[in-house]
Amino acid sequence: MSWACLPASAGAPAKLRAEYTFDTISNNTVADASGRGHLLTISGNYSQTAGPDSPAVSFAPISRASTPHKTDLNPDGREFAVTVVFRIPSDTSTLTDTPNLAQKGFWGDPAQWKMQLKPEVAAVQCRFKGTLGARLLTSSVTDVDDGAWHTATCWRSGAQIGVTVDGIDTSAAAATGDIANSRPMLIGAKSLTSSTDQFTGDIDYVAVAVGDEAAQLSRSAAPGP
């Protein structure tokens, strides 16, 4: 897609709020390449695997990565995006939950941003919940459980929300208001006590950006074709 199709905003230029390449894991910790110091801790049944051009992390039940709550991971009312580069090695159509790729906040919280899978069609879903309500958007791209690497971005710009998978954009009008919560950011799963909503697959890159043209910035360093 051409990023020029995204609506312009009058906010401050986007800045990365967190960026993880997973190239090096030291004592179960991944450094924040954005320079903001949001160390990511990986727990449970994970391992390193080969990514598109550098090491990645393979998540298996039960495992996840997390970074403590920081207010700069809340977009509030600003333009926002989260990008994840991932691979799913097996069919998801029989799953009865929604595997979580990245999130801050839980479903029942007053505010949440989240990227998850719709397993029956292997599509990417984005949820934004704020002071004006919640909206769930599903990508037009399906069948991402094909063993190939995919790049997905959940984004909000003004009163539009969108999900972009491998350059294919799906968007909708949705004013969600301010999004802020006191939860940690979670990658791969919401819990270390249950396999519910566990993402079982590989993640090579995660980036969070806030500000004008956040979507472009969040995927600017993403690996892959």
Written account of the structure:
By secondary structure, this protein is mainly β. The chain has a single domain, classed as Jelly Rolls (Sandwich), CATH 2.60.120. The chain is 2% helix and 44% strand. It is built from 1 helix and 14 strands. The chain has one helix at residues 214-218; strands at residues 15-20, 29-30, 40-50, 55-67, 80-87, 100-104, 112-118, 123-130, 133-138, 149-157, 160-165, 168-173, 185-187, 201-210. Strands 1, 2, 3, 4, 5, 6, 7, 8, 9, 10, 11, 12, 13 and 14 form a 14-stranded antiparallel sheet that branches. The longest helix has 5 residues, at 214-218. It is globular and about 40 Å long. Residues 1-9 have low confidence and may be disordered.
| Computed CA radius of gyration, to the nearest angstrom | 16 Å
Average pLDDT works out at 94
Q: How helical, in percent, are the residues?
A: under 10%
Enumerate the spans where pLDDT stays under 50 for 5 or more consecutive residues.
Answer: 1-9
Instruction: Calculate the terminal CA-CA distance, rounded to whole Å.
Output: 14 Å
Please give the largest β-sheet: 14 strands, antiparallel
Q: Tell me what portion of residues adopts beta-strand conformation.
A: 35-45%
Which CATH C-level class is it?
A: Mainly Beta
Count of folded domains:
1
Shape: globular
The CATH topology turns out to be: Jelly Rolls
